Amino acid sequence: MFQRLFGRERNANRAITDALYAQIVAAARQTVFYSDWNVPDTPLGRFEMLSLHMYLVQHRLHGEQGVAAEVAQVLIDEFFLDVEHSLRELGISDVGVPKRMKKLAKMFYGRTAAYDDALRQDDRVALAAALTRNVRPDAGSWPQAPLLADYVCEACQKLAAQPTESIVAGTAAFPAAGGV
């Protein structure tokens, strides 16, 4: 069944990709991040939260084969298309978009490595430090970073407990930030 959905043609079932991406975006836009945890409500702050949630799904699907690997790739493609579209909406010229995309892709993959290291070592202090460097580089300290680190760990656990079949069928469940 899934081979028909994501087999040779990546866009064979846009509904699944759209549903997963919408859930990632909704999780990244939880108001507690911006209102209570002091994530900047700016284009860069929203990019950071979207990147973090995209990372969480990519982290969950890492090492999967077949349809799950295809879904992961389609989602990352969708993410970068969305970022490119956002840059254009912000008024970045056609000449400037590729340069900014390259920088944002480098930022995304750099963050992925930092978050992977901290999660692999089960080191919430290192995770909070990586989140501070990325989400609040302007702040000397960020008291809410441990809250976001706890959320990331909870999201990893929740996604890990979710069957792969459920994810590739279009459902990625994230926890409510702040336990709300």
UniProtKB/TrEMBL annotation:
Q: Where is the Ubiquinol-cytochrome c chaperone domain?
A: 36-174
InterPro entries xref list: Ubiq_cyt_c_chap, Ubiqinol_cyt_c_chaperone_CPB3, Ubq_cyt-c_CBP3-rel
What name has this protein been given in UniProt? Ubiquinol-cytochrome c chaperone domain-containing protein
For this chain, the family text in UniProt reads: Belongs to the UPF0174 family.
